[in-house]
Structures are given as structure tokens and as C-alpha cells.
Design brief:
six-stranded antiparallel beta sheet, alpha+beta
Length: 389
């Protein structure tokens, strides 16, 4: 099995005064483990551009994922979407990143800024082949992938940033490359890299973007497994089975919940050492030999879910959890930025302390937290498995 996986992150800012973004990113997983990512830029901005870019990305990603050829995809788009009657130009431009079984990248580009490819931390001038499909000039590239390769796709709102404000002719491609090379040295995730690029564009526009700006980043990285134990089993006789399975799994181990960590300490025959140091409003963590992180349960996990939802959205709270040392922040750092494959071991036992009607915590909320966190992590491109006990 290929040890590499693709980490995907993207972010957009809307044209000033528009509620909808004229750019759209679509990601489709294929049955063979390949991934199709499409960034489409609709003509103009606002509602019309949003509809055009969404249709374009959906049509291309769905057809390519179904195994149809590029020619068929482009011809379908040409027959489906209109050409602007006023300007006589394309309804939507697009960039396709087809990651084939995490071994090869097929890059297909039509009128969007060319994808920036970083290899060994530096810009890599990858080969491009010109094709004429449906009367349109399309560039196609095929690249064998290596660990830490980074692909940066963007709409033209990025190189147009700063026109008439910070720059006469916008943010030049070579300057964007230099900026991303420097950011990449910090080892940021794909989501953070895309956020940094778009946030910089927003600044160059003076906070009033003259165009929709979108960045989609794909980073190739080794698979890193992670395991999280949350809650004791409903049947006490299953404790040993649950612990055996949990600790037998490869990768780091996180335990959430006081009762759960006490059971783990007893199973490991090691002392559980709680910390009395509060970090903000999140309960303190504890230490247990053989476990990488021990935290409180529902309150901590609820905060992790909040961070996860923000991370796959606007990513406004990154500074909040990326530097803090409380339990929720430490879990977020491990799950969002380090792990690629996450296994949850979830106990169905009902905690008597949660049955107080004055507490907004109950069994169903606990199960919902696991579901919401799993869904958010899947949107980050993580492989998730949940086992209940």
C-alpha cells in the first residue's frame, strides 16, 4: 500500500459587497483511492458567477471520478453552460488536480493561473502539454509524486490582488511563489497554507477585494495513525477488550474522560497524575505513562468540535488553538495537523454525573460530538473509523 496521502485545504474571499463567492472547489473521492479536485472560477462575481462555477466544478469532478475522459467533460460543459453574450468569453475557467492513488498527479488547467508546484521546498517548473479541446487551449501535466510535494491552485483573484493599491499590475506570480516557499518552510498544513495565501490577498486588496480570490492547496505526506478513546464501555466486562484493541493500534494514543483514563491507568498498572493547572476555561490535562495525551471528556471534546468546524470553514480560530496548551488545543493540534488516519474507540456507558438536569450534557450529546467531529475530520481529508463499545 502507498504510504502517501493527499492533504487538501482551500479558502475563498468574496468580491467586496457580494454575499456569494464566484469561485467553487469540489473534491470527489474515487473507489480506487484516487481524488479529483476541481477549482472553478465563474465569470464575473455574485450569484451568476457562483452558479456557473458550482455547475462547472460539479460536472467536471463527477464525470472524471466516473472515469470519463477530459474531452467528454469539456464538451459537456460547453453544451451545458452558456458563453457570455456581452463579452463573448468563457463562462467559467477551471483547474483540475487528479491525484491518482497518491502516486501521480494529473494537472489540467484552463485559463486559471497556473498551479504552483513546490518540491523540496522550492518552485518546480513541471512540464506542460498543450491540448485543444472543444476549441479551447488546455494545459495538461503528469507528475510522479514525492513526499512533501505541494500543489497550489488559485483563481485569478490572487494574482490580481493589490492592483492599483500595493502594486501597479497585481501580485506577480514570482512574488506569490516566494511567499508560499517561505510559508511552506514552517511545515503548515494544506488548510493553513491556503488560508495564509488568501488572507494575504485580502490585505493587498485593502480589505475590499476587487475579485473573488480562492486558493486550494494539496500537500503529499506520509500517513500518520492516531487513536482516541472516549468514554467507558456500556458493559464493564468489555473494558479489557476495549483497552487491548486501543493500545494494540499503531500510532499515538489520546484518552478523553476521567473515568476512562482511570480504567486505562488500572489496565496499564501505571499511576494517573492529574494536573492542577488550568489553561483558560478548559479542564486540566493529566499524564499517564504509555498514553500521549489524557484530557477531560465532554467539555474538552465539545471545544475540539467547535475548532474542527471552524477549521474546515473560515479557519478564523487557528491562532487560538495552534499555540495553546489546554486539552482541547492539544487534541486539535494532533488530529487536525498531525494525524491522517484516526480511529475512535467510543464507550456507550452513561455517566451518572451527566444526569443532572441542570447540566447541558447527556448521552445523546456525547454521541453527537463523536459524529460531528468525525464528519469535520473527514472534510479535512482524514480517514476515520469509529468503534463503539
Amino acid at each position: 500500500m502507498n504510504e502517501l496521502c493527499c492533504e487538501i485545504g482551500y479558502k475563498s474571499v468574496n468580491h467586496a459587497g457580494e454575499q456569494l463567492c464566484g469561485d467553487h472547489v469540489d473534491v470527489v473521492e474515487q473507489e480506487d483511492g484516487s481524488t479529483v479536485i476541481v477549482l472553478a472560477d465563474g465569470l464575473g462575481s455574485g450569484v451568476k458567477a457562483s452558479i456557473l462555477s458550482t455547475l462547472t466544478s460539479k460536472i467536471i469532478s463527477t464525470m472524471l471520478a466516473a472515469g470519463l475522459s477530459l474531452e467528454e467533460c469539456v464538451e459537456t460543459i460547453a453544451a451545458t453552460l452558456p458563453v457570455c453574450s456581452v463579452r463573448g468569453v468563457a463562462y467559467s475557467t477551471f483547474t483540475i488536480l487528479h491525484i491518482i492513488q497518491n502516486r501521480t498527479a494529473e494537472i489540467i488547467q484552463y485559463d486559471n493561473p497556473h498551479v504552483i508546484f513546490l518540491r523540496d521546498g522550492e518552485n518546480y517548473d513541471y512540464p506542460k502539454t498543450e491540448m485543444h479541446v472543444g476549441g479551447k487551449l488546455i494545459y495538461r501535466s503528469l507528475i510522479h509524486l514525492q513526499e512533501d510535494d505541494v500543489m497550489i491552485a488559485m483563481s485569478d483573484g490572487c494574482p490580481h490582488a493589490g492592483i492599483g493599491i500595493g502594486y501597479n499590475f497585481g501580485w506577480k506570480r514570482e512574488d506569490i511563489i516566494s511567499f508560499m516557499e517561505a510559508m511552506n518552510l514552517c511545515g503548515y498544513s494544506a488548510k493553513v497554507l491556503s488560508t495564509l495565501l488568501v488572507d494575504e490577498c485580502f490585505k493587498l486588496y485593502g480589505g475590499e477585494p476587487g475579485d473573488d480570490a480562492t486558493s486550494c492547496v494539496v500537500r503529499m505526506r506520509k500517513r500518520i495513525p492516531m487513536n482516541m478513546l472516549f468514554g467507558p464501555p456500556s458493559n464493564r466486562d468489555d473494558v479489557n477488550r476495549m483497552m487491548n484493541l486501543f493500545f494494540a493500534k499503531e500510532g499515538k494514543h489520546i484518552i478523553c474522560g476521567g473515568t476512562t483514563s482511570s480504567l486505562a491507568a488500572k489496565w496499564l498498572d501505571k499511576p494517573l497524575c492529574p494536573s492542577l493547572k488550568f489553561e483558560g476555561d478548559i479542564p486540566p490535562i493529566a499524564t499517564l505513562e504509555g498514553v500521549d495525551l489524557v484530557t477531560e471528556g465532554v467539555i474538552t471534546v465539545n471545544r475540539v468540535v467547535e475548532y474542527a468546524k471552524d477549521f474546515v470553514g473560515e479557519n478564523n480560530r487557528y491562532d487560538e488553538w495552534s499555540r495553546q496548551k489546554d486539552g482541547a488545543s492539544l487534541i486539535s493540534q494532533l488530529l487536525f495537523e498531525e494525524a491522517t488516519d484516526i480511529t475512535f474507540f467510543v464507550g456507550r456507558a452513561i455517566n451518572p454525573a451527566h444526569q443532572n438536569p441542570n447540566l447541558p450534557i447527556n448521552f445523546s450529546i456525547k454521541m453527537n460530538l463523536v459524529q460531528e467531529l468525525s464528519e469535520a475530520l473527514q472534510k479535512m481529508g482524514k480517514r476515520i473509523k469509529v468503534s463503539y463499545f
